[in-house]
Backbone:
């Protein structure tokens, strides 16, 4: 491996590490259960359109 290939290898590694770090820092967490997506909505019966709970 000559100096030119080695420099290109190091340059590419630095670039890929920088890119991975960039995407890792910009990733946002998802809010679980946002807009009522986690709860079950009753579709039929007396309690239609109400959110079912696990309490008994």
Residues:
């Amino acid at each position: 491996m000559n100096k030119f290939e080695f420099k290109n290898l190091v340059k590419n590694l630095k670039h890929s590490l920088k890119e991975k770090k960039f995407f890792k820092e910009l990733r946002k967490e998802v809010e679980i259960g946002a807009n009522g997506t986690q709860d079950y909505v009753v579709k039929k019966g007396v309690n239609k359109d109400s959110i079912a709970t696990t309490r008994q």
Summary: The chain is about 45% helix and 0% strand. Residues 3-26 form the longest helix (24 residues). The chain has a mean pLDDT of 81.
